[in-house]
Amino acid sequence: MDFLTFMSVFLLLISTSCYGLSENHHGDEEGGLLVVAPAKQQKEFDYFLLALLWPGTLCQGTNHCCSANACCRSNATSMFTIHGLWVNYNDGTWPACCNNGSNFDIKKITPLLGGLQIYWPSLSCNLESTCDGGKGLFWAHEWEKHGTCATPVIWDEYTYFLTTLNIYFKYNITKILIEEGYIPSNSEKYPLGGIVSAIQNAVRATPLLVCSDGAVQELRLCFCKNFEPQDCPNNVTPEEACPRYVSLPEYVPRKV
Length: 256
Ligand code: 5GP
Fold this sequence. Notes:
Layout: H1 3-14, E1 47-53, H2 55-58, E2 81-88, H3 113-119, E3 128-129, E4 135-136, H4 138-145, H5 157-170, H6 173-179, E5 190-191, H7 192-203, E6 208-212, E7 215-223, E8 229-230, E9 245-246
Antiparallel strand pairs: 1-2, 1-7, 3-4, 5-9, 6-7, 7-8
The protein binds guanosine-5'-monophosphate.
């Protein structure tokens, strides 16, 4: 799909209401479980979730470096990076690996690679598991596991990555937080409620934060199928839940 065609589809979807597409379920209606099944049997998802990573927290666990690991970059960036665009069911489960025929092909996203390397980098040297049991790039993992389940809104790899970048840029969470005084710091702690309110005010929907040892590790934004923001359900596990005061550690490049 070329860019103009994509934008037409995107604008068409924007013009529908938040729940305008959600009655279009098909296939297996049993739901309730994490289903890994061929696309034919896959129940249609209910909403999108954009998962963002905070490198300042995740890179603290870096033990060795390689060129593929953005934690090892010398130009320190204190910004949320993309984890993935996921699709979820309202009951708290999600589909995964919906089309094993849609193996990741880096050639299909050549025009996007510059942006992906900056804003959707791997934060590890390890290859990730792919749906066929192999190992591949972080992007391959995200497309095969999550992107292939985004039909009928997203049908192809290029649109999956372009759509994700577009939403990421539209809701610039790092900028929103910095403008409200939530500056990356290795000494400050910030009220979780203040961070959530800042995002609610800017995005008009409630995000979900995931922490590790009191530090923000992941921030999730939820969207209807027409990409209008919607509240995220608060379904993190107790181990991932953030305390009342959280830190936003500064990104320290690892030279190990
Ligand atoms: P990934 O496999 O994309 O790197 O990360 C997804 C991880 O997040 C998995 O371990 C999955 O079990 C977990 N996860 C936690 N909450 C959600 C959610 O709301 N949706 C999806 N799709 N995965 C989630």
